[in-house]
Specification:
Number of domains: 1
Order of helices and strands: EHHEHHEHHEE
CATH superfamily: 5'-nuclease
Strand content: 5-15%
CATH topology: Rossmann fold
CATH architecture: 3-Layer(aba) Sandwich
Low-confidence stretches: none
Distance between the termini: 16 Å
Radius of gyration: 14 Å
Largest sheet: 5 strands, parallel
Structural class: alpha/beta
Helix content: 40-55%
Length: 126
């Protein structure tokens, strides 16, 4: 199985914060592939740059931490952008929309605490 974790979930895991038991079980399972989108790194870079988020070492440290935790990084592909275009406008955040579209296009389960995610036809876990 392949899973894509939302930006906030990645931050919570990397900072040692509490996540749901279901999400923790999946993320801790060495038999599954867990991905973080490069779009999450972009979102973090923007928020750190604006002073809306603090992450010691900035986006470089985030990317290093992602790799140390053995998460795989998935890029933004044409199919993800095309999938975003077809999504109903139920969520205003462009990063979340791109992550949802990526999960759909890649047939991944999206791990997120975001209450808007179930509004989409995406495999979802929290």
């Amino acid at each position: 199985m392949r899973y894509l974790i939302d930006t906030h979930v990645a931050l919570w895991v990397l900072k040692g914060e509490q996540i749901s038991d279901k999400a923790k079980a999946i993320i801790d399972d060495v038999t599954v592939e867990v991905f973080v989108s490069i779009a999450s790194a972009w979102e973090i870079a923007i928020k750190v740059g604006l002073g809306k988020l603090k992450y010691d070492g900035g986006v470089r440290a985030f990317l290093d931490d992602v790799k140390l935790n053995e998460f795989q990084i998935i890029g933004v592909e044409e199919a993800h952008i095309e999938q975003t275009e077809g999504l109903e406008y139920r969520h205003r955040d462009p990063f979340d929309r791109l992550l949802i579209a990526t999960a759909i296009a890649e047939d991944m389960t999206f791990i997120s605490a975001d209450e808007n995610v179930p509004k989409y036809d995406v495999k979802w876990l929290w």
